[in-house]
Write a structure and sequence with these properties.
The structure holds two protein chains of two kinds. Chain A has helices at 2-20, 22-48, 57-88, 91-95, 101-131, 139-167, 171-186, 192-196, 200-210, 221-252. Chain A is mainly α. Chain A has one domain (2-252). In chain A, helix 1 packs across helix 5. By secondary structure, chain B is of the alpha/beta class. Chain B has three domains: 1-93 and 170-187 and 194-241, Rossmann fold (3-Layer(aba) Sandwich); 102-168, Orthogonal Bundle (Ribonucleotide Reductase Protein R1, domain 1); 245-310, Alpha-Beta Plaits (2-Layer Sandwich). In chain B, strands 5-6-7-3-8-9 form a six-stranded mixed sheet, with helices on both faces. In chain B, helix 2 crosses helix 3 and helix 2 packs parallel to helix 4 (154-166). The longest helix of chain B is centred in the middle third of the chain and has 18 residues, at 184-201. The chains are: A mainly alpha, B alpha/beta. The A-B interface holds A 1-3, 5-6, 8-10, 12-13, 16-17, 20-21, 88-90, 92-101, 104, 247, 250-253, 255-256 and B 27-28, 62, 65, 68-72, 88-89, 91-92, 94-96, 98-99, 102-108, 112, 115-125, 128, 148, 164.
Chain lengths: 258, 326
Amino acid sequence: MTYLWTFRAVLVRFLIELKRYPLNTLSSLATLYIVFLILFTGARYAQGLGVNLFGEGLEGLVVGYLVWTFAIIAYSDLSWELMREAQQGTLEQLYMCPLGFRFVSASWIVASFLVSLAWVAALLGLMMVTTGQLLLLPLGSLVPLLLLTVAPVYGIGFMMAGLALVYKRIQAFFQILQFVFVALVAFPADTLWGKALPLSLGTRLLGRVMVDGDTLATLPRTDVLVLVATAVFYLVLGIGVFRLFEGVAKDRGLLAHY
Amino acid sequence: MNLREGEGTPTTGTVTALIVEELVKDYRTRKGPVRALAGVSFRVEEGEIVGLLGANGAGKTTAIKILCGLLRPTSGRATVLGLSPSRPEVARRVAALLEGSRNVYWRLSVEENLRFFAGLQGVPPREARRRSADLVARFGLGDKRRTTANLLSQGMKQKLALACALVKGTPLLLLDEPTLGLDVETSHELRGMIRELAVSEGKTVLLSSHDMGVVEDTCRRVVILSRGRVVADDLVPNLLALFQTRAYRVSLRDGLPAEARARLATRLPTLRLLEAERALEVELSPDQDVYALMDALREAGVAVEGVSRAEPDLEDVFLRIVRGER
């Protein structure tokens, strides 16, 4: 039960902080929606000129933007949170959790994923109303696919958090990565290398589920396996890199410094 | 760090809560390596309140963070109730207040902070609520229980940070500068609370401070660190006795005229005039007694208002030990 109570504590804290700053939360959502509107208007204009900016039409734009949003939330939630904790002096307290810091981070990721689902659902609703494109939402296939798609992003989040523990000011990296994620979402997943990159294959598979009516069971087995393998690979790599930097931070006494 | 389970439990019946042996910690800096701890060793028995005293940079925080598992020592060994600090299970037995009020979530209220830290420790919600209510009452935070930490005064933030360490219900507490930045009244209040922890709850406390008053008020034993080394480790009364002198302080009614001073100086060579306080301090030699002092004062025509024994406090002891007088 200890695991449950610790997870509950992390989740409750996550929700309290969201509730305490509703304007911040709503403005983030509004910003994401406004960016989408700009993209959508541009795409429709290009379509009028006979240019299809998004290979799979407007549905492709919606799905791609959805995955990108999810990736940004996932990535920034984890790495910003770790930097904030270091900055305010609570990171050391989290390290003194009997279940270990990694369990606290994992709880944080699950809490963040659950809340992100709600945001993305709200954003998706708004996007579908705006575009008039109704997408299919078989939750049983969507949720696991989303989780597998963003798992590499959590891995990258761990790497960045590790870097931040030691080198502190790495905000410039953060901003660059947002653009890298756009490229990864749009990257064609038709070669093995393309599939092995974070986000690209997941975005395609989500598109097939939401646009073409596929389910997890009808998707190509190999693609799903590659998605699982990349999710595990990047997550394990991220945690490994984080542990490496964590060791350096413990040697140099940097856990509480910012 | 080596670990041999159960090593903190000697066969004599008393339990050693903390064992620190030959701890060395070097930090890498741009100017080269800096040695924060240079072979520190001490022990803390269960139920003791021990003060870790030292000037800034003496190595107090480094020692405490190693015991929390937040820093890796360069060499040496530490055990916390028989476990290596690097093992997460240590956190079931030890809670720490580090860097004072920076240990709480400023966006959470008093109650929310307490419940979060209890939950982090794996305490079920109902028990977390009970502990939280109890600590809120004990620390006088009842009116502020729904106030977010950022709106609390410095003293209240510090109390909340201590309460957050206590809500975990561990038998061992490591407190790094718990009264730093507090006003006199709150500092005294917090000292009382810390003393009570050992007396009524049997907690073991290792408290670091550069404030002698805090340590003298709360601790039974003191480990004095200077430049990363232990320069003294003894009970507070023993340390005070170490510098106990036969010194007396004489309050003067009308000050000390030059002529009287000259006369006194021949009979009492250790005489020291404290002009601002209109008093003098004299350390008697082994062949002198208080009567000899009184005779000398009467013969010099000095009007005496009062006489008291000048006791050294921990600050005197600390300064003299660090200066290498003993």
